[in-house]
Fold:
Amino acid sequence: MQFYKLEGFTIDGKWSEENDNRRILKEKIRRISIKSSVFNQKLQKKAYFCVTDAAEDTITIAILCRDGDSLEKQIASFLTAIEIRLKDTVLEEVTFAAIQNMLQCACRNDYIRDDDVVMEQFNLDKLCGRFSLGLEYGENLIEDADKKYIYEEAEKYLAKDTFLPELHRIYTGKAKTKANGHPVHYMVETDDRDTRKGLCRLLLQALRENGRIRNRRYVYLDCRPGERFSVSVYECLYQSCVGGAVVVRFLANDDSEDDRATGDRQTIENLCEIMKKFRNQVLTVFCLPRECTKAKELFYENLGTTSFVELKEEFVYGERAEDFLRALAKKEGVRTDKKLFSALESKKGYLAPDLHELFDAWYDNKLKNGIYTQYKGIASVKSEVIKASPKGCAYDELMEMIGLTEAKKVIGKALSYYKAQKIFADKGMKPDRAAMHMVFTGNPGTAKTSVARLFARIMAENDLLSKGGLIEVGRGDLVGKFVGWTAPTIQKKFREARGGVLFIDEAYSLVDDRNGSYGDEAINTIVQEMENHRDDVVVIFAGYPDKMEEFLQKNPGLRSRIAFHVPFADYNTEELCEIANLIAKQKGLCLTEAAGQKLNAIFEKAREENDFGNGRYVRNMIEKAKMAQAERLLAMDFDKIRSSDISTICAEDVEMPAVAVKEPNRQIGFCV
Structure:
């Protein structure tokens, strides 16, 4: 399809005179509408013409046509049919969006009855309004360029080994006056956005100049693996591009997960099915990342007998790398120096993004130290960002907590990982949203839940999670009472936790001894949802060390999705005393030296017992001491009580726990 806008001045005076009243104007519009309708019926959907607007001596006409070969004759016939003569006309090809707006304008001005009906006649209705949901695309017009310009521009891109030979093939022989289908289509393989845009632009300009594509208009769209879109809408998009081109930017990855591979396959099959149907009417350019072998194999599996020319970004060495840097410097109007070329390694190959990174770093330095020397001492923004500590008060709270060395280390690693991806993106570090699912193992009272809450807040405060809330669940919250209830219940919890952390306490309680039970269904659903929500939910499993290890051994699929194992060790006596002082301080209390020594002895003895409670045990001791202090204060003379007495825990307030007396082993039988 081709879409045009025609504008011109009326020869026979002004279209509307000052003395024309509304009735006369309405009658003029009605006559043009009727005559246009009669003319378009004779064209039998091969083309469509209508006036969209008329003001004083200017007329604007919208044109849709399937074949523009006899367009000038058709324009003359249309103007004769509606009895309007024009001079100084300007005819220009426009985008689909522009023609859609023009038809809507014609409908508002009563030159046509219904613009939607016109779209339906040319099978373009699915690109309008609600029908186009799920397929986002853009469109542009090819600018004219001659052979000399195209070859000069081609030298700027690191794809000479594949692109220049194809330009030679395009310019071999005489230019076609009419396109006879497409002998080949194209696959551009590059990670550099500028290289991709530049190669596509020059390729389309060369093909149009040589008559290989008729239209100026071309469409570009992004497709992601597993992305759902309407095949009928996609086909409609190709229908609108007959005589032109479609550029498909496939944003793939080479993740080996089966579910992702399945998504890749379905998306690629849909793309290739429509492409093959229109292969002789629409030129297709597929754009893939440079190292995307699996997706590329899927494309070739589904493209049948269609021929493709690969235009691939190249590694360059030595002089070619230096020439590329010189071209960048020339573009900026600066001279190169030894510092720029010294950054190149002699035996290393470079892609365009690598060389852009080297040049940008050198140019930033040159601007400050060579051109605008008054800014020589100003540090770069990224240098300041690297030095900066993680944001937010939650991180400070975590760092102030007693012990928890491993937990602090893991959270520090996570924050550093994401900070590095932001800072070093322009140095070639690829963005990769790694799964952050964790296992917290430790005895009761080792602050697993407290750290999970702080972790959620830290991730939100540092822009790694959108909300940072914590949803805490156990077996009773996840396993349904009846068949079919478990999976929806778990999916609901994942939706609630979106943007935050899902904390599953005593996760091993989900697994029971019967295969195919509700517990098995729960684990299978959790594994699936962890993958579905890997970008917006962090799952933390928590429980006793030995039971958690058994739990993970039973579920290898679960273990493979967990990035961090964080052990929460029992607190030693010194740490328990520090916790006691911290809890007392938070309650506005202080411990006397004697009280601290008494607690030290209690904690030393308590640590000999299994599951003594750790921090929870300490909190209970302080709560009991506070109650004992209240009882002691009430027994004192009120007038003699000072404010310092109210804020002090004494040794007599600390109650020594009762020592459990072990029953002697009684033997059954006779004694000698």
